Amino acid sequence: MKIIVKHVVKNIVEKKLRSAIVLLTILLSTLVLFVGLSLNSIINNTYSTMLQGSYGEANLIVNKVTDDGNPFYESSELVLEGVNAERLDMIEASGKITLQGDQKTVSLYGMDTDAAKEMNVIDLLTGEVKWENGSVLISQRTATNYDFEIGDRLNVSQGDHTYEFIIKGISKPEGLFNSEMGDILLITQPEKINEFYGTSNMVASTLLKVPSGDMDSTITSLRENNDSFTIQRTNEADIILRDEQTFQMVMMLSIIIIVLISAYVIASLTKLIVTERMPVMGTFRSVGANKGMMNRVLFLEFFVYGVLGSVLGIIFAVFLLPFAADVFNEYKEYGVETVVEYNLVYLGVSLLFGMFFPAFISFFRIVKANNKPLKEVLFDTAFTKELRSKWSVFLGVLLLAMAFVLHYLNRYADIVLAVLSLLLLFVSIVLLMPTLLYGISYILRFFLKRSAAGELSLGIKNIAGNKIVANNVSMIMVVFLLLIMVGIASAGIDQYVSNSLTKDFDVAVSLSENDETIIDEIRKIDGVSDSYVQYISLGQSTNKGIESTFAVYGVDDFNKIDDFYDGITYIELDDNNLSNLENAIILDEYYMDKYGISMGDTVEIQPVDVSYKPLESTEPITMVVSGVMDSKGINSSRDVALIPMAVYEESFAGIFQELGLKLDEGYHAEDVKERIADTFVNHKLEVITFEEMLGSQKATIDTLIDGITVIIGLGMIVGILGISNNLIVSFNQRKKEYAILYSVCMSKGQIIKMIFLEMLITLFAVIVIGFFGGLAINILLTSLLHAIGMVTEFNFTFGLFGMLCLVVAILLSVSTLSLVRKVFKLNIMKELRYE
Amino acid sequence: MNKDMGRDLEMENIIRTEKLCKSFKVGTNDVPILEDVEIAIKTGEFVSIMGPSGSGKSTLLYLLGGIDEPTSGRVFLQEKDINRMKDKEKSVLRRKSMGFVFQFYNLVQNLTVEENIMLPVTMDKKKPADYKVQLDEILEIVGLSERRKYTPRELSGGQQQRVAIARALILSPALILADEPIGNLDSKTGTEIMELFYRINKEKGITIVQVTHSEEAAAYGNRLIRMKDGKVLEPVIM
Prior knowledge:
Number of helices of chain B: 9
Number of domains of chain A: 4
Helix content of chain B: 25-40%
CATH architecture of chain B: 3-Layer(aba) Sandwich
CATH superfamily of chain B: P-loop containing nucleotide triphosphate hydrolases
Structural class of chain B: alpha/beta
Radius of gyration of chain A: 34 Å
Low-confidence stretches of chain B: 1-9
Distance between the termini of chain A: 26 Å
Mean pLDDT of chain B: 85
Shape of chain B: globular
Number of strands of chain A: 22
Oligomer: heterodimer
Largest sheet of chain A: 10 strands, mixed
């Protein structure tokens, strides 16, 4: 046994190239799995840390209800009687500053710095927090960007006034400075901000830190004592429409694909390694080792590969994770640090996958191979003819049919069915590969029957009948199609953002409930030609036993929203119902098709909050479907419902209000945005132009696509390693075949010509099968992408297809070129003899 | 001088060697396999080469076939020095002027019987359809007409060797080189194969050179060359 184990270890060391490829494949798949699994929680942690960080340890935020148009209040107006809370009063203003020749927007916050420090809203690096008149804190980021030091002076202008500040302290770019995001944020004493407004002792918001166990009772108590204030949890205060689920699903899809590529590559490698090992194993068996012992020895070899590869993979992954996470941190440029945590469960899962998967896959092959007659094992006379088993063909066709049947049955875009359908397609392609290759070979033979080139004729036959060649084509095909799949999805998402999002506004103003009184004033701003206020909340509905969530828009006038938003197109309307029914609803065509809802049907909608929990004291509302629309221009998921404003106001919580503005010709969105921000400086408005919104969405998608591209790039490396290894090992397996051909009829030049022709035919097969496979994937992928909320058109991307064909062509050419030298150096005598 | 010898002298040499040497490098040492081998084989002969393992007989056969290259010396096939030929010319020679038969048959596993047999035709840029008659005749000779669509794996060892012989015959070569053609077969099948060689030699006049360990197999030939330690012993006329 010791001798055998020594043989195994020697084998791993001596077969350097093969061992390196196997180890690298396991290393990369373990690495990608761990990084991929970890990324999602890291990104969510980073995002929530950033959001939460803006409020430090405060968990409640209080604002005044501005029915009177005045957002300010005196600190004493907020009654905190009987509430166990630390408080931090704040007042904000904005102004302009000219730095290095550029005019920048400045946000100024007035607050008590001791309280702010206590609540971790600021974290001073240098300087002091004791206020003198005109002293400010800046962030380390601003200090670095503009080369500021303690004692430097800043001039901030607002309207006709200019205020001078002296930098007294520099804070870490954390806490409130997290929200600096490209602008400049200054913290000063509240009196100075009051000076901006001509007020004294006024504040605009109060942060409260209450014990987490007392949150509900504190909120109730605060609401009872403070009618004129709104009280919100800080984690609900900022709702940024960030589709975490979509991100998570796309990420999972990428991981699954990489794992599938790795699995297929490892499976294919084990097949070749076991075949290569068999004669030696036969020798051991011929001197008395039993099959069980041989099985265990080979199993051990793959386990050793797995342990080495996965441990190395985890080491690299731990090192690389912060860098990979940084790629996905879209707030990095604003100084938001990526919060990297190493999840032991993910680490364990990845390690176990890397360790056991090669051994697991190889086990069945080893047992199968060792069951062969000893003579066949000993002399390596394994049959290399590719058998087109009728069962494989039958099963392949059946699975292919099932894949499409599942797709058409999957009306409700169930993700499990969608994944299963794609999986069936891949298995069917692998099963049908010999038959497809035979078909291509048959057609080529038919058209080239007049050709007298023997090399060509033999090359075509080899594509159809040679197991090793078929194995190579299968591996290339699977990797090729998996990459096509990701490519189609990425291109579709990108195309949605670039082309499908309709320009429905020039400038949009996000409003809090407190700001509703200024809507009319904003509408009167010079240059605004048209406007519309969107009131959006969330609802849940159960149709055909499936629960779905959608965005509910409260609408005053159904025609006006259609006129204003090009992204909404009515397909069919029941004007009578819409005019007369209080509970009329317009649903998206996709949503209705999906759940078999028709005009006139009723649907029940439960109002929910941002955590998808039913709103307190609300019951599901019965609505009558009175219109069908296409809303893809405003929402990729198309889960949008329009309901009358009366119902909305009665039952739904105003989660999001946005004022969309269209401008007269000749007005620039940027100028109008500036004007709104300047005019309503005492309101905390978020004003964004369409270009900025598009840019921001595109940046998010680009970050996502960049990340996926990195992962797919790694997958491609795994695939290329597998394919190269397959081609190299297949040369070793075919050496004897080449020697025979040389000895009886071919020159080495003819053998090389034959190998090149095989390469060309392989490429042809990849192009043909890849094209049809790609079209099939394009159809089946729709369900999966719909399931993850991407209800948009996904087209077969010829550009990507061409690029992948080129990659395969280069890969095959390089591999084939590397064989030329090997053919010329081939020791014919050694291959022909068995001694 | 007997009558046979007199006829031999009248015949041309189909293949001959001049001071043929072959050695392998083991570490820094040159290990000689063949030393100054000089043999001449005439058209129509059936020559058997015998000798103990390691005597260099298979190496000599592969050198005669141009599959291996000598360290020094020359091999003349029909008075052409094959080691001066380019690889392409040698391959033409191997498919048109000679046929090889190996101990382990060396058939291409993924091709059928007739595809294996027609390999030299295909590689010679000839149309297989033009060789249908020859193929049928050869299949008839080797007794595999019914199994022309089989793959090697579906055939017995003897049948595979017949396919190898048929492949060697398809372009009507002047010479067949056989390396222990019955070494992997049972005695009955071995006898059948040797009788087939005998018939081919007698009826088609094809020169056969075989390497064998078997005295019985050697007896089918009309000349025996004995080798020992890389050298040819005195030729024996049967």
